[in-house]
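User: Could you check the structure of this?
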Amino acid sequence: TGTLMDQASGKAMQDAEGRDITAETTFKAKKSTGTAKVKFTFDASAMAGKRAVVFEELYHDGLLLTTHADLSDEDQTIYFPEIGTTAANDKTGDHTALAEKEVTLTDTVAYKGLAAGKTYTVTGTLMDRETGKAITVDGKKVTSEAEFTPEKSEGTVDLHFTFEGSALAGKTVVAFESLKYEKTEIVVHADIEDEAQSVHFPEIHTSAKDENDGDQTVAADSDAVIVDTVTYSNLVKGETYKVTGTL
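Assistant: Sure, the predicted structure tokens are below.
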């Protein structure tokens, strides 16, 4: 029989109904040495970031013969990775960027529950929040990839996106990430509404008029007043901005 243990707490892991996660198999030993497989099937959706250690007990006729229960045994350990991200504009260090020819965004991927010393690959893709589709430049998706070998199970790794951003005024881009181990995807972070993963590209339009009569013809006299109404979109609510105009 086997029981999944939480390495952090040292207690048995439980399913959604509060029951310990266990499994067992009955086998007949054909030789004195061999193997037997114990299969655990359970809902692991709440286990992101955890490490499970399998404890085993061997019985014969109801009598406990031996156990294998070592929380620090790497061979008994299963990792359930978790990642979270924060995307920011390199120039401002925040979630706002100018739609210009060359834009560089850095997506800091925080991970936990990885195996120290193993090599992983994290890939990021920039998505258009409005359409839910990948941002493209010259028909190619804007992506970034990094290979890393963590020294600890928790840490961060940066993804850098440098691309042509002139067409992004008024749009919000969201960084989606995928983490792979030996080419197998083990965790994704893809929330189109996640503000931490988002970078806003503001857009403005203006309408200049004569303050006196509201048209666009102004008398060339000593007290001309022009009112320029600036219409903006895709700013971050609650932030303070300054708009400057030049004739």
